[in-house]
């Protein structure tokens, strides 16, 4: 009889605990879902702010430098999973730092520009305090990852961050801001070469200058849509200072110089037929980019994002085929 009573008490206790668990579950699940929804919204706002997919402009050139350095140094294009992982983290954290800092420093300019007024840093979705924390966090991650790569990478991590941060100020006093933006992305192949070889070979500098003028050229085209606003705001963009026709011509010159530096890169790295074919393919893409923009300014986004994204991927693909 006593055993029966004990069993009933045990059973009642289990039911009671189960009821408490279900009550806790019913209470917490909506809260967890709510927090997850908020987290997804934050990630969406951050992505809108810095546009992660635009990493496609820098990553192909980082990997081009890494496979070139690995082939020349080790006889193989494969540089290892560790450097692949660390390279991606460095690229993403550096770009996130630069884009977030640009949005932080340019909030007043973006607020006055109708094209930028809906950005999360302007409409209040991401507060200045949170944005500053995001900037600091990415800077710390970049420096920490650089330390894991090699001593030269660590030594240059702070100067690289300074260069990335300096771009936001250039357009306030110099039309060379377009090339400064190019330099920020042009650091990518030099960083890739450093990661694999621990040195800065000549070919990586030539590849860097190619990226500088490539990015500078398409940034001039992209700035055409802000030409009138830049004039009103007193910003030193090439379109604002020199007008549409001169800007189109300057962009063509920049892109011609970019192609020249890419050819010099191929020669300095002793690359073969497919590498030169890749440069020719990129020159063809740039030609069509100018055709598209000249015919219709509304297609600037297509020229900026789509064609230049394809260009970087094509460049890497041809160099990979050449080295493999």
TrEMBL record:
GO terms for molecular function, please? 4-hydroxybenzoate polyprenyltransferase activity
Cellular component aspect of the GO annotation: plasma membrane
- Required cofactors, per record? Mg(2+)
Q: What class of enzyme is it?
A: transferase
Q: How does it sit in the membrane?
A: Multi-pass membrane protein
What EC number(s) has UniProt assigned to this enzyme? Answer: 2.5.1.39
UniProt main location, coarse? membrane
Gene3D superfamilies on file = UbiA prenyltransferase
Any one GO BP annotation for this protein: ubiquinone biosynthetic process
Supply the source organism for this entry: Campylobacter gracilis RM3268
UniProt name for this protein: 4-hydroxybenzoate polyprenyltransferase
Family recorded in the similarity comment: Belongs to the UbiA prenyltransferase family.
Q: Which UniProt keywords are listed?
A: Cell inner membrane, Cell membrane, Membrane, Transferase, Transmembrane, Transmembrane helix, Ubiquinone biosynthesis
Under InterPro entries, the record lists: Polyprenyltransferase_UbiA-li, Prenyltransferase, UbiA_prenyltransferase, UbiA_sf
Where is this protein found?
A: Membrane
TM spans, by residue?
12-29, 50-69, 81-105, 126-146, 177-196, 202-224, 271-288, 300-321
């Amino acid at each position: 009889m006593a055993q029966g009573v004990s069993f009933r008490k045990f059973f009642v206790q289990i039911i009671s605990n189960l009821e408490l668990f279900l009550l806790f579950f019913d209470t917490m699940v909506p809260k967890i879902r709510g927090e997850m929804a908020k987290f997804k919204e934050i990630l969406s706002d951050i992505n809108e702010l810095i546009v992660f997919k635009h990493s496609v402009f820098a990553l192909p050139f980082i990997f081009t430098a890494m496979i070139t350095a690995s082939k020349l140094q080790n006889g193989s294009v494969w540089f290892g999973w560790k450097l692949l992982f660390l390279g991606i983290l460095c690229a993403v954290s550096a770009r996130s730092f630069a884009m977030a800092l640009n949005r932080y420093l340019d909030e007043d300019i973006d607020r006055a520009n109708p094209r930028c007024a809906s950005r999360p840093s302007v409409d209040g979705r991401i507060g200045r305090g949170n944005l500053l924390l995001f900037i600091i966090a990415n800077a710390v991650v970049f420096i920490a990852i650089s330390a894991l790569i090699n001593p030269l990478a660590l030594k240059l991590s702070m100067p690289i961050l300074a260069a990335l941060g300096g771009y936001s100020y250039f357009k306030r006093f110099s039309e060379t801001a377009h090339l400064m933006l190019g330099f920020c992305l042009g650091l990518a192949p030099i960083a890739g070469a450093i990661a694999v070889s621990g040195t800065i070979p000549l070919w990586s500098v030539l590849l860097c200058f190619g990226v500088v003028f490539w990015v500078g050229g398409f940034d001039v085209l992209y700035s055409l849509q802000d030409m009138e606003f830049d004039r009103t705001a007193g910003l030193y963009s090439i379109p604002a200072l020199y007008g549409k026709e001169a800007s189109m011509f300057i962009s063509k010159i920049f892109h011609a110089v970019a192609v020249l530096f890419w050819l010099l890169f191929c020669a300095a790295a002793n690359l073969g037929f497919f590498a030169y074919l890749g440069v020719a393919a990129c020159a063809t893409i740039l030609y069509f980019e100018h055709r598209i923009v000249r015919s219709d300014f509304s297609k600037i986004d297509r020229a900026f994002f789509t064609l230049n994204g394809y260009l970087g991927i094509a460049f890497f693909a041809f160099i990979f085929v050449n080295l493999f």
